[in-house]
């Protein structure tokens, strides 16, 4: 009988060790993926900085700015600690979305003229790019930096839509920014959370700290 108890104890000990090893393995895997994403964002920042140029001396506010070509953009949302480079590419490419936000290729470019800049990103899990998008409230500021300019937007509204509702990225009759992510968060999304913001001004974009 004591020998049987000893055997069972050893089995439980080995099971405990196995579970710890598996847990450490999972943590290591997710840490590796996080490092990969951070490194990729670092490379994107370098690409973004290459498109950054000095603006002519004069006013720090600009009333008539039209971006004419797709290029990396920096999205900053102070309220929810978002500071990411928005990628240029196919928004339906899951491998690309795993690395950061993506500009909808069928949506408009940043401008002081009417148009809708639409950006999509993952939410929750290890891809927590837009995890806290639901915390934004009307009036919160969002910054989109491109080609040396900072487009300053204020949130107007947010809503939940069906995943096949593409009307939210349609062009608008005023300069707008639309962010899209999965809903609900931290589970497989069945719907889409949409945040819409309107342009209030354009200034010089700051350099990275």
Count of runs of 4 or more consecutive helical residues: 2
Helix and strand sequence:
HEEHEEEEEE
Radius of gyration: 22 Å
Strand content: 25-35%
Task: Work out the helicity level.
Answer: 25-40%
In total, the number of strands is: 8
Q: How would you write the strand order of the largest sheet?
A: 2-1-5-6-8-7-4-3
Poorly predicted runs are: none
Main sheet properties: 8 strands, mixed
Report the average pLDDT across residues.
Answer: 83
| Distance between the ends | 68 Å
The general outline is: elongated
The computed structural class is alpha+beta
Topology:
Elements: H1 2-51, E1 73-77, E2 82-86, H2 94-97, E3 102-103, E4 115-120, E5 141-146, E6 149-161, E7 175-183, E8 191-204
Parallel strand pairs: 4-7
Antiparallel strand pairs: 1-2, 1-5, 3-4, 5-6, 6-8, 7-8
Describe the structure in your own words.
A hairpin with a 2-residue loop joins strand 5 and strand 6 (149-161). Strands 2-1-5-6-8-7-4-3 form an 8-stranded mixed β-sheet, with helices on one face. The longest helix is centred in the N-terminal third of the chain and has 50 residues, at 2-51. The protein has 209 residues and is α+β, with helices and mostly antiparallel strands. 26% of the residues lie in helices and 29% in strands.
């Amino acid at each position: 009988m004591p020998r049987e108890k000893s055997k069972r104890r050893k089995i439980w000990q080995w099971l405990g060790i196995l579970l710890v090893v598996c847990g450490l393995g999972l943590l290591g895997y997710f840490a590796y993926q996080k490092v990969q994403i951070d490194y990729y964002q670092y490379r994107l920042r370098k690409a973004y900085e290459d498109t950054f140029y000095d603006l002519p001396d004069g006013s720090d506010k600009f009333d008539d700015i039209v971006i004419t070509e797709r290029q990396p953009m920096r999205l900053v949302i102070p309220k929810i600690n978002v500071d990411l480079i928005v990628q240029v590419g196919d928004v339906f490419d899951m491998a690309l979305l795993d690395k950061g936000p993506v500009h909808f290729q069928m949506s408009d470019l940043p401008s002081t003229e009417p148009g809708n800049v639409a950006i999509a990103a993952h939410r929750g899990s290890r891809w927590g790019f837009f995890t806290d998008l639901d915390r934004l409230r009307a009036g919160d500021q969002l910054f989109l930096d491109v080609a040396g300019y900072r487009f300053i937007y204020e949130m107007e509204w947010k809503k939940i839509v069906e995943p096949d509702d593409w009307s939210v990225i349609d062009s608008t009759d005023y300069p707008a920014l639309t962010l899209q992510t999965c809903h609900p968060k931290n589970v497989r999304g069945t719907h889409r959370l949409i945040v819409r913001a309107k342009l209030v001004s354009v200034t010089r974009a700051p350099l990275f700290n």
